[in-house]
Design brief:
The chain has 160 residues and is of the alpha+beta class. Helices cover 31% and strands 37% of the residues.
């Protein structure tokens, strides 16, 4: 690893913001009743510095968050060791049950999935249909860790 250890590969706040803005999917971990992790992947948006997504109200992750609001989110990228980069956010989930706010989050996520193209009447109708079944989740960050192995300056080693 480059001199400076972990701090040498840590992303700046601006790099974290740009990375989260560019990525589409987040891995979300909640805590099952038996203490084991429940891990899923979702599309997300960043709203006021928080990861936001919507999901079915009856989902296991929502049941877990109702019982224990602790959550960890991981956004990562890269194939080769020296390309790996990511952001891990541990925090507390706010469950959004107000339909106007759910609609806002859902519309933002759906728009992002179609790369900002206007959803049109059909897309808006589908979001509206989904609002009745879903809740929004906003992740209030407590701890953020980041890494970008592209910042390493040593030549690649045979073993990692």
């Amino acid at each position: 690893m480059a001199r400076g250890g972990r701090s040498a590969v840590r992303m700046s706040d601006a790099e974290v913001e740009a990375f989260l803005a560019a990525a589409m999917k987040v891995q979300v971990a909640t805590i099952n009743p038996d203490g084991s992790p429940h891990l899923t992947t979702l599309f997300y948006v960043v709203r006021d510095g928080q990861i936001g997504f919507w999901t079915y109200a009856s989902s296991q992750k929502v049941k877990n968050l109702e019982r224990d609001p602790r959550i960890t989110c991981l956004v990562e990228d890269g194939e080769d060791y020296f390309e790996l980069r990511g952001v891990s956010i541990s925090g507390e989930a706010e469950l959004v049950v107000d339909q106007d706010r759910i609609r806002e989050i859902g519309t933002a996520v759906a728009s992002r999935v179609v790369h900002g193209v206007d959803l049109g009447e059909i897309g808006a109708a589908e979001v509206e249909r989904q609002v009745q079944k879903r809740v929004g989740v906003l992740v209030k960050p407590i701890k953020v860790a980041s890494w970008d192995h592209r910042k390493m300056t040593e030549a690649p080693h045979a073993e990692h």
